[in-house]
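Protocol step 6 of 9: fold each sequence in the batch and record its structure tokens directly after the sequence line. For illustration, a two-sequence batch is reproduced in full.

Sequence one:
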Amino acid sequence: MVPKYKYPFPIICKLIFCALLGRHWSFRDLASRLVSHQEPPFDIQGRENIPHQGPCVLTFNHYHRPGFQAWWLALTIASLVPVEMQWVVTGELTFPGSRVGFFGRPLSRWVLRRLAHTFGFILMPPMPPRPQDVQMRAAAVREVLTVVRRTPSMLLGLAPEGGDNVGGGLSHPAPGAGRFGALLASAGMQFVPIGAWEDNGVFHMRFGPKYQLNSPHGNLADEKDRSAAHEIMKHIAVLLPEGLRGDYAKSNGS
């Protein structure tokens, strides 16, 4: 049994209206409205770890199953954090292995740009990285770091994996994710790990305690990237049921 997620018609109408006309809307307000309509209510654990101010990064697993829409991860977090957050989201849906991609990719770019304008999202090229996206990804990282430095109390939300894992469990982030995390840490941001999953018809979300991302180990850039990514993901892994820890099942938080 899996949860059913409700989309009240008046809320969706307002979302479409704002996106089409370029109106701004609080993502936290949208999230609070949608989450309040869900039955049964979502199970939230570790509420004492929900940050009220930054600077910190809220990192969560990109939970996936057929029929589950990943936006519920961000919506749930945004509804629980008591202040408006800054979100880093994909700028394109890639539809791997599907014929839908020919039309779906350009349509998704247009839709996501509209939503980014409405909610103030920062768009990042999709994962895994593509050669043609190198400059766009670098520009997006610079934009995030600029905003972070201008907003000392910022709360930033992102999913390090950057995409769906077919098995639903954790997967290794694409190259560069750890480096990005290290840059955020060097800008003074701490990290709050979050684990999300479904079980017995209920959507669960667990917040872990805040931590400081240590300087990555290794002498080479790739080693430092992998080290930082592992540090981030292992904090998420310990918040999930063992069957969803995926590539980090043997980490055991160490």
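Sequence two, same batch, same settings:
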Amino acid sequence: MKVLVTGADGFVGSWLVRRLMADGHAVTGTYRLEEDRRMQRFDAALRDRITWVPLELADDESVRRAVDGDWDVVAHLAAVSWVTVAERDPGRAWNENAGGTARLTRVLADAKRVGDADPVVLVVSSVEVYGPGTHEPRRETDPAAPVSAYAASKVGAEVAALGEWRRAGLRVVVARPSPHTGRGQSERALVPRYARRIVTARRARAAAIATGLLDGVRDILHVSDVVDAYVRLLATGVPGEVYNVSSGEGVALKDLVVRLCVLAGWQPILEVDAADVRPDAVPHLVGDGAKLRAATGWAPRRSLDETLQDVLDAQAD
């Protein structure tokens, strides 16, 4: 298949590209000129096997040039992907996440209408769109109630993409993944951030590490399992449908950090530092993945301990 992956040089995008290449597909990947991470994500041999095109989601012409083609499938991962970045500049988050998805899906819908291409388009959103709620796992039928600029812009992206499915029959499938981690993830994310602190404390024989409040609950997946779900949805996802990519099993973030300590073999005192405290408007967020399992047979293969160990091993490299 001819596959376009937007955000191919990002954390998840690079994992997805490797999986697609291993499966024998011809992959074109996009990257941002201002944040070109291809060198750090791929070795030279693999990098040269991928066709690369620049993409600026906020620029109509850039989107048209990057997206115009006879793709079999398009995996749209490019986005403002950090909650903190979106909160600092919500206009940018809306312009790139919602507006960029609107631009991308309109180009693809126009190509479909004239018979140039009819791709399956996977739009990656987030379980963050559900916002506050009960302690029950969230289902796709639950209403979206975003409480951050990031989550709101992802709802906008979903609306734009599904609008093209209704208007033009563009085969849009929406994925709402739970938080995921693995080798190569930025230390902006919780698991690699605390893995680094714990490993550093162990090396220095430090008695304590700084933490935030760690009072939230999330289901945490390994990035390879999330990528596997995306590949399955590209093959068998039903156009117009939304799928949670979730384990259904929540873990308290404090317990997660303690588990990292156990796996690392170092038990520092967890000291709350005001500078590290971040307000969490969604204290409990666990997705129900039953719909995805029923549609594709997907289930996570990596346990939580295996996932955490992979990140700890990356810190030791």
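Proceed to step 7 once all outputs are recorded. Observation for sequence two: The chain has a mean pLDDT of 95.
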